[in-house]
Design goal:
Length: 427
Amino acid sequence: MKFSTAFLLLATTTTITGFTLPAATTHSTTTKLSVSQSSKTSNKDLAKDFDETSPEDVTPSSSGGAKVGQAEVVLVGCGAPNRGMGWYHAVQMLEGRCPSASLDYIIEPWFLGPGSTGPGGPEFAEWADSSTSKYGTKFITSVADLPTPEQPRVALISGRTADNPRLLNECIDAGCKCIYLEKPGAPTVKELEEMKSCAEEAGIEVLMGYNKNVCKYVRKTREFAETIPGSHVTFVSNNAYENTPESLGECFERNAEGMLKNMAIHELALLVSFYDVSVENIESVEADKEFSSMQTLPGPSGKEFTDFDKIKFTIKTKTGKEVSVAADRCGGTDSYATVTDTDGEEVFRYWMPDEEDKIAVENLQAKYPTAMPYFFTQDPDYVTVKERVAKHTVTGEEAEGVATIGVAVETLRVAEYLTPLLMEQLK
C-alpha cells in the first residue's frame, strides 16, 4: 500500500460460572478546513521518499532520531507529567516499547509558554530536560516549527478535543503521511466530518486511538459470547474519581464534551465496530434508572455543567442485535465485560487487567506512583495501537483492529444521538 502524503499519530485469568473458555490460538464552533495546493504537492513529493521502505528495513530504536524503517513521531499536546495522556504516550515510546516509532518531537505550547511557571510547569521542564538529554527528543511550541521529515512522519494528536480541527490542518501542512487522532477526534460530528474530508482531499489516511478495539478482554468476551446462543454482552467502564461534588465538578468541566463523548466513547466505538450500531440502525435505547445518575455541578471556574456521573443503557438494533454499556466515573480503575445467557444469568466475566496483567500494573504503579491509575490498566493496549499504526505508516502493513475516522464519525454521531435521549429518561 502506498500513500501520497505524510502521517499524523495524533489482558489471562478468566472468571466463568458454569462454562470453560475454549483455548484461543464543548465547544461547538465550526472550523472550516482546507489544504493549499502547494502544501498538497509538497507532501506528495515528501511521501515518495518513503514509498519503497520494506519491513526488512525496520531498525528498532527510540533515541537519536528515526532510523530507516521507523516512523518519525511528533507528539502534539503532551500535558503534565503523570497527568496528561500525551505524556504517557511519550513515556511508552521513549522507553522503546513501540519499536516502529521514534519520538523525535514533542509540541507543548502551554508548558513551554504561559504555563511554564504555573502548576506542573517546573515538573514539565525537568522532564523535558531529562528526555532531551537521554533520548535526543526536541521540544517545541508549534507545529509550524517542524523541519522537513527525514522518515515517514507521525504526529500523535493528544491535546484538547476543541483544538483538533486546527491541529489536523497544521499537521497536514507539516508533511505527515497518515493521521492518528486521540478520541473522540473533534467536539462535534460536523467538525469531524470536515476533518475527514480535509484529510481525504490531501490523500492522507486517518486512524483513531480507540484502544479498546484491540483489548484482550473485548476479544475474549466476543469469542465467548459467540459460543452461547442468545447471549447478551455488557461492556463496563470505570474511572477512579472521588465521589464528591468538587472532584466530579472538576471532571465535568475538564471533559465538557460529556461522558458519552469522553469516557464512554470507547464503548460506543466497540458498538459501532462490532455490533452494527449506527444512528439509523438503533431501534431503541433504554437507560437503567436504578444504576444511572446525572448531576449538575459547578466546575473550578464556577460555571455549572450537567453530565452523567454514571450511566447504564441497552441498545437494540433494527438488525436484531442487543448490547449494553455501563460507565461509572467513581467505579474504580478496572474495566470488564460480561456475558449473560437467555435466562439473564451471568456466565462469563473478563477483566481488564486480568491476573496476568495485574503484575505489570503493579510494577508501573511502583515506577510512576503519582500517575493516573487508568494509564496502567490500559498500558498494553496503548502500546499495541501505537505500534500497529507506526508500522503501518512505514511498511503499509494493515493496522489490524485500529479504528478509522469513518468509525469515529459514526461513533460521535451515536454519542450525540444518545446523550439527550438518556438525559430525558433520567429527568
